[in-house]
Amino acid sequence: MTVSHDLSILSLITQASVLVQLVMALLATVSLVSWYWIFRKWFQIRAARTKTVEFERDFWSGGDLNSLFQSASAGRHHSGGIERIFESGYREFTKLRAKSHDQTATIDGARRAMRATYQREVDDLEAHLAFLASVGSVSPYIGLLGTVWGIMNAFRGLANVGAATLTHVAPGIAEALVATAIGLFAAIPAVVAYNRFIHDIDRISIRFESFMEEFSNILQRHLR
Length: 224
What we know:
The chain is mainly α. Helix content is about 85%, strand content about 0%.
């Protein structure tokens, strides 16, 4: 068996110790799961941003609030977060306005309803981001554990060799370093995706909050 063949990635993985192989398998599994959530959150955030833009365009086009409310209620399962915020606020507004003549209580009730829906929408967008953050922070250390263990095994094996050369040392160290490489492969995309998603969600949440303030002012004018 040639040295180059011994140092191939597949050979290094199959010839690694059991603990190092377990570490590699764990990191590979974590990486696959993180990629699943990266793609899923990317589609979810993109859809939320698109639906926000579409609803804001319809809302500020001067359409009737009752028509928008009926449209939002009819397509509730396919509506965006900002549309559900509008729906909850307007429903609470119409309900309180029919029961009470206290304008302050009516507006406050609508604000609370929108705030509760806002929290649910943001929580849904942020779901599973903690997993990506954990993968980004922990994976390199898990890979380092496999590397340290593999190097320890490599040096223990040298005790049975009379004259240690690079040929004896290189395979053991190389297979140990593969664990670190897999750890970095799992961590880097997770960190990049997490930072990007947090930035996008912050921008969407700001648009939600701005809409709630502006819509509250519109509802207040409707009471005059």
